[in-house]
Write a structure and sequence with these properties.
Layout: E1 5-7, H1 10-19, E2 27-29, E3 32-35, E4 40-42, E5 53-55
Parallel strand pairs: 1-5
Antiparallel strand pairs: 2-3, 3-4
Length: about 60
């Protein structure tokens, strides 16, 4: 696995992934990941994590 990539926003991280060819949007559920509005469920033994991201949130009070 490569080093951790850092982004200022979640949108920037998602856009970077799309530019790298990633097309699916997964949502964490208990025991699996959901994709395509729940039509596809992927369990831990069915995927490999190949990238880590750190989002550098900045709190800006209104």
């Amino acid at each position: 696995m490569d080093s951790v990539e850092q982004y200022d926003t979640l949108t920037a991280a998602i856009n970077s992934l799309r530019l790298q060819g990633y097309t699916e949007d997964f949502n964490l559920q208990t025991g699996h990941l959901d994709c395509r509005q729940g039509a596809l469920q992927v369990h831990p033994d069915e995927f490999e994590i190949d990238k880590l991201f750190q989002i550098l949130w900045s709190f800006r009070p209104r």
